[in-house]
Specification:
- It contains 1 helix and 3 strands, in the order H-E-E-E.
- It has one helix spanning 4-13, and strands spanning 40-42, 49-52, 60-61.
- The protein is globular, with a radius of gyration of 11 Å.
- 16% of the residues lie in helices and 14% in strands.
- It has one domain (4-61).
- Strand 2 and strand 3 (60-61) form a beta hairpin.
Length: 63
């Protein structure tokens, strides 16, 4: 999974149009680049959320 510094860089250089926007997430807000590896993520600092989605089951929040 990506650390916070790497996620901050991804978010800074990813436009909304190019972001993942995971349709199965609890918030529909994945800010990582489209086609990324690893967990979905949104938000900054202590408000950052991470979640995974596996086909056939609901998303589960990691943080």
């Amino acid at each position: 999974m990506s650390n916070d510094t790497q996620l901050d860089l991804e978010f800074a250089y990813t436009t909304y149009r190019d972001s993942c926007r995971d349709l199965y997430s609890p918030y529909y807000l994945c800010r990582r680049p489209s086609g990324h590896d690893g967990a979905h993520a949104a938000g900054f600092g202590t408000d950052r959320l991470r979640w995974e989605h596996e086909h056939g089951r609901s998303p589960h929040q990691l943080s």
